[in-house]
Amino acid sequence: MAKSESAARERVAIRAAVSAHRVPSLGRSLWQVANSFLPFLGVCAVMYWTYGAVPYWATLLAALLAGGLVVRIFIIQHDCGHGSFFRARWANTLMGSVCSLVTFTPYAAWRRQHAGHHAHWNNLDHRASGADIYSSCLTLAEYRALSPWRQRAYRAARHPLVSQLLLPPLVFLLLYRVPFDTPASWHGERRAVYLTNLGLGAVFLLLGLTLGFGATAMVQLPIIMTAAIVGVWLFSVQHRFEDTLWARRDDWDFVSASIEGSSFLKLPRVLQWFTGNIGFHHIHHLDPRIPNYRLEACHNANPILQRAPVLTLRTSLGAGSHALWDEEQGRMVRFPD
C-alpha cells in the first residue's frame, strides 16, 4: 500500500512539474514560423533556379535540406493540432491549415486521428484505436498463431524497404488525398481533406503555370518524399524499440507509458533543430500541450524524466527491426527465423 501511494504521489508530482512548461510564447512561435518557412521557400527558389542549369543530382541535394525543413514545419502543424503552438484555437487552426499545404497532410482529419494515438499508445488492448502499422504491433504469440502466408504478408509490410521507404511517400501523396481511414460521421474532417486538396491544387497550378509543370514535379516530389520518409521513421522509432513498454489495459499507466513507452531520441543538435525537438517524445506524451521549443527545458528540469529509454542516431537505425512484443520477456523482439 505504501509503495502504491508513493507511486501515486510521484505521478502527481511529475504531471505538476511538466504542466509548468505548457504556456506558449507568441514571440518564440512566430520566430519558429519565420525560421522554418522562410528558409524552406528560399531553398525551393534555389531548386527552381538551378533546375535545368546544373546536373539534376545537385538539385536533389537541395531537396534533402528542403525535406528537413518540411519535417520542421510538420512539427509546427503537430503542435497546432495539440493546441500548444498558440494560445488561441483559431490561430492554431489557421497555422495548422497553412502548414498542411507544405506537408500534404490534411490538418483537421490528421488532428483527430492523432488524438486517438495519444489516448491509447502502447496499450495492447486498444491497438485498433488510433493505431497504424507505425505505432502498433502484434505480440509474438499472436504472430506465431498466424498462418504461414499471413506471417509472410505481415513481415513483408513491415520490411524496412516497404514500411520506411516505399509506403511513406504513398501515404502523403496518395492516401492523404482521400479520407481513407476517416469515419463517415466525421463530416468536418472529411470535408477538410478535400479542401486541403483544393488548396494544394491551387498552389501547384500556380507554380506549374509560372515555372512549368515538369519543373514543379521534379522539384516538389523529392522534397515531400524525403520529408515523408524521415517523418515516418521518427514517429515509428519513438514507440517501437527493444526496451519500450507495452501493457494490457489493466496494467497500462499514463505516466509509465510516457516515460518508458516513448523514447528520448538524442540527436545531434542540428538534427534536433530540424526535427523540432520531437526526440523528447516522452515529454510530449506526458503533456502534449507543451510547445516543441519547451520540451528540452522540461526534460532538463526534471531528473526523474531523464530515466526514459535513450536512443541515439546510431542505435535508432536498428530499432525498427524489433517488430513484435514478447509478453513473457517484456520487450520487443525481432521476427523469429
TrEMBL record:
Signal peptide: none annotated. Residues 57-301 form the Fatty acid desaturase domain. GO terms for molecular function: oxidoreductase activity. The chain crosses the membrane at residues 30-50, 56-76, 88-110, 161-180, 192-213, 219-237. It comes from the Bacteria. InterPro entries: FA_desaturase_dom (IPR005804), Fatty_acid_desaturase (IPR012171). It is an enzyme of class 1 (oxidoreductase). Its EC number is 1.14.19.-. Keywords: Membrane, Oxidoreductase, Transmembrane, Transmembrane helix. This is Omega-6 fatty acid desaturase (Delta-12 desaturase). The lineage of its organism: Bacteria, Pseudomonadati, Pseudomonadota, Alphaproteobacteria, Rhodospirillales.
